[in-house]
Amino acid sequence: MVFSSIPFLFYFLPAVMLFYYVVPFRWKNTVLVIFSLIFYALGEPVYILIMLACIAVNFTAGLLVERQWLHFRKLWMVMAVSFSLGMLIFYKYADFIIEQINVLTGAHIPLLELSLPIGISFFTFQALSYTVDVYRGTVKAEKSLIDFTAYVSMFPQLIAGPIVRYTTVISELHKREITFDGFAKGSMRFLRGLFKKVLIADTIGMMWSNISADISSLSVASAWLGVTAFTLQLFFDFSAYSDMAIGMGRMLGFFFDENFNYPLTAVSITDFWRRWHISLSSWFRDYVYIPLGGNRGGKRRHIRNLLIVWSLTGLWHGASWNFILWGMYYGVLLILEKYVWGKAWQRMPRVLRHILTLLLVVVGFEFFVFDDFSAMTQYLSVMFGLSGHKFFDSFFVWQVSNFWSVLLAAALLATPLVSRLREKFDSAAGSRLAKLGNISVSVGYIVLFVLCVAAIVNHSYSPFLYFRF
């Protein structure tokens, strides 16, 4: 089950809202837990036990750590972290580790071929952050198993984030305002995400599929268009899920932190990672980078810490060397930006910094998309004119002529322009322009919803890309 499916839109979500709004507040978290477990079980009926085990271990560890049971606070924290990371490593990286052992030793250890539990990287990191925060004294341990289960298993952000910290929702778990205004705003945010996924990301994904189908015949221009299309597809696909999760959270009375802040408008790699997948980069900052020492201890130690963090960031995305390479690529760029070209970069015109940042980001996603290194190398050689392919061809013209409208829409929506126009309408509340704008916006949302449903019915959508992480 995914957010952009007919059963979810017309059966599951209405049922959740009906029961959730009808029951008294003291039962709302219970309703949320029941439906979240149903949501997960429909997709992973067996692996729900893994999530429940993760919840049980970290909930118990939090209580033991806070009460200093037998004065072994650190022991309980380490045991919970080891258990959670152990599950993540076993299910996500076991075959990758076995493959490397076989390559290095010549052994023939059979692969386990375990299917990856959906969302394990997300709910594991949420549970881990809670236990570590209790150990640090940042938060008090949760006393209610139902409330803690609601926090970890909450269906809006369970499968692909954003990674929600317990510190973000602790007050709302116990007391929150559930209003019609919040429901309305959440619904609109949800619909914007649905639109971005079904009509933007999936359509641009078709372009990427067309271009990547035959690398050997690509021109240089087509290769750049293709990896640009993938970059846009990934951004709109993932940010769409975050929009839908934040919107549904708002409908339920929760305020999740933003996960994207127009990253394709960034003017440096540092700026890009302050805007892209914010919940993940901030998680690694707070629970890995800073404990390692951050930028303290001198240049050499700082570089080491950056390389460790970005290698782990890449590995978090998947058990494949291309993800590690992708993470290292950003680690190296951040090191160069900090110690080599940073001052010269800042002196360049803003528009030039923006263009160069986009080029670096687009090249980076070429590492991200290919897990086959021969295909990756071949594609890179075409992009940089090293393969003898033509610079320009009719295939490029055909792609642009067929997808120009969605490319234009993506370019506009990747900037804050539309958001700022919406804010102007909101600030003009009570005026005729605002009323006209509100009517137009309402009609627009209805039209977009109908178009999205039509696309889903016609099977022209695909699962969210980050489901596999």
Describe this structure in words.
The chain folds into 3 domains: 6-176, no CATH class; 179-256 and 385-469, no CATH class; 273-383, no CATH class. The protein has 19 helices and no strands. The protein has helices spanning 6-22, 25-43, 48-67, 73-105, 120-136, 145-153, 166-174, 180-212, 220-251, 269-275, 278-292, 299-317, 321-339, 342-347, 350-369, 373-383, 394-413, 417-427, 432-457. Helix 2 packs across helix 6 (145-153) and helix 8 (180-212) packs antiparallel against helix 9. The longest helix has 33 residues, at 73-105.
Major β-sheet, in short? none
Radius of gyration of CA atoms, rounded to a whole number = 23 Å
The helicity comes to over 70%
Strand content: under 5%
| Separation, N- and C-terminal Cα atoms | 16 Å
Number of strands: 0
The structure class reads mainly alpha
User: Strand-and-helix sequence, N→C?
Assistant: HHHHHHHHHHHHHHHHHHH
Number of helices: 19
pLDDT averaged over residues = 89
Unreliable runs: none
Name the overall outline. globular
What is the total domain count?
Answer: 3
Multimeric organization: single chain
